[in-house]
UniProtKB/TrEMBL annotation:
The keyword Kinase is assigned to this record: no
Annotated signal peptide: 1-29
Keywords: Signal
Record's protein name: DUF5916 domain-containing protein
Gene3D superfamilies assigned to the protein according to its UniProt record, in alphabetical order: 2.60.40.1190
Highest taxon of the lineage: Bacteria
Domain DUF5916 residue range list: 242-339, 376-726
Lineage of producing organism: Bacteria, Pseudomonadati, Bacteroidota, Flavobacteriia, Flavobacteriales
Carbohydrate-binding domain mapped to chain residues: 44-204
Amino acid sequence: MINRHFSTPVSIAIAMLFCAFSHAQKANADYKIHLYKTNETLTIDGKGNEATWQKAEPAKDFFMVLPMDDRKATQPSEVKMAYDERQLYLLATFFKTPGNTYVVESLRRDFSFGGNDNFLLFMDPFNNQTTGFSFGANAYGAQWDGTMSNGGSIDLNWDSKWVSEVRNHEDKWVVEMAIPFKSIRYEKDVTEWGVNFSRLDLSTNEKSSWTPIPRQFPTASLAYTGTMVWDNPPPKQGLNYSIIPYVLGTVGNSSIEDITYDNEFKVGGDVKLGLTSSLNLDLTINPDFSQAEADRQVANLTRFELFFPERRQFFLENADLFANFGYDEIRPFFSRRIGLGVPIIAGARVSGNLNRNLRLGLMDMQTDKIDETGLPSQNFAVLSLQQKVFSRSNIGLMFVNKESLDYNALTDDLKSEYTKFNRNLGLEYNLASTDNKYNGKMFMLKSFGPDSSYNGMAQGAHLAYSSRKWSWRVQQEYISENFTSEVGFVPRNNYIKLEGSVGYLFLPASEKIVSHGPQYKGFYYFDPSMNSTDYVSIVGYALNFLDRSSLSLDVFNEYVQLLAPFDPTNTGQEELAAGTRHHWNGVYISYNSRPKNLFTYNLTSRLGRYFSGGYRSNINAELGYRFQPYVSLGARLSYNNLDLPEPWYTTDFWLVGTEADITFTNKLFWNTLFQYNEQSNNFGINSRLQWRYAPASDLFLVFNNNEQLSPLEGNLWSLTIKFTYWFNR
């Protein structure tokens, strides 16, 4: 009854929006660019001097999105497209005022959008205004590619096989691309795709788009795409497969107690098979992810587990089908639960579109047993279905199963430590209005296990609105005490949560300030009997400047009733007792510098009271300097000072991360990350040299060193060389 009581207002509001926003025409349907097939051999050199480009229809007269969306862009742009039997081609020209310098952080692939002069292509091959692909380049030729989901979110961890070239001139820069049809997924016999083009010019602080887009939305918003009209349906892909083998050798040593490290030689790889032009089968055998980027450490003063994103390539294509069910902290599936610290024997995944409106995700992964700990071999299976309804909404179904094999052969002690099976079954509805102003979600999850202690429920719903000046969101969550998601990310159980926010923007006619305005956020937690356990109320004011810098000030009021013992320093000291109540106030201050500068910095600070009547002072800084386009230097600094009564007294600790990103060319990269975490007494180095000697084919040399400082002293280091090659047909 509690669950139904709190979901009803949101459910009714979402239901009322069905009729209002279900069947309206796409906002920019009248913006069209026509594609014609070419028989000419195009050279991807950034010159664009072939006859095909002289005849191709241009998309031009871009609209300004930022700083204001009521006018045409001041910096002219022009995009042309063509295709042949194998590839989709694009030629884009971006004019600029002579004398304006290019702003580029580095030649690193999948660059930071806000720190580079760049061009991005957004494609919606299924015209569902929900999923698609993005390709792009910055002004010095660094590539960008990712998959699109949720109507405009981009996952840059996905890489595909394609080529591009950029040329710079005094008054313009030109990018030319060739994207193989086998690198993307699309519906056969369809002659209209959604498409849009975006440009960011930091010399004028101007973001522009081929189609008009309200300033509160990203240019990646698929609700505002125009239409790419083919003279004939795109070519059928026929047999489409890729084989991506790897060979790896590692040497290393460990002096940390209970951790051994053996030298190894491994061979494995992935296979990609196009079952249809829109549905893909991925297979992996004896995978290894040692070349994946290292996690950025975070100082943790919370009572709960921290979330770290997935970076392993196998899990990334169509990742939204698996990862976006539920909310950030109610995830029934979290792929990092598979294969971190446990060998993966093999895995298979089918993902993509069965038709224009129905998407399928099916995954099965098998891990090996670990004799030292007694962990049994385990199987992980996931099924996800997503059916589009109305103009941009969808209904989703998910089933997650974790099964321990040969469980009955385990000793009684191991049976109490490991679970025989855990399953989650869920259903959700995602609302997205035609104009993207309204977004919402409703979902229900049920968990199952060997006995009733694993059987529980989780449920949530929200509704959000965003216009040029107003934004608001209401959200509700409920998780029962016994809800169990061993393959998911659910940091806390047994609560009801109510959340809300509202904000307003003033848009002054100012030469320095683009917008400013107040905002409120509130997070309120209750136990199932509706007794308050914790809350945070935040009232603030934000200013956004024309040079893309920003300043914000927030005042917060926080209350916590501890449901379990907790050390407020998270350093292994004395714990506060469960049931104790704590209340404090404080302020947040944040400033982001303008990205055009060679030296950039972002500063945030938290000042105020803390647990047990104490004080907490926190300062965070992100510093960057670039010698464009080849060298980007960065540092992340975090300092916490906790002034508490006895037995803690004063505790302070630093988190320092420094990074050197050297891009010799747009195919040869060297990245080195140093991290020192005083809270966990850990010092780490991750240094990675990557040579992309052919499209999507790499040679990696990776050095890792992890130093445990006093009192748990020890060292773990490894050196890995990994060679991959992408065979494609």
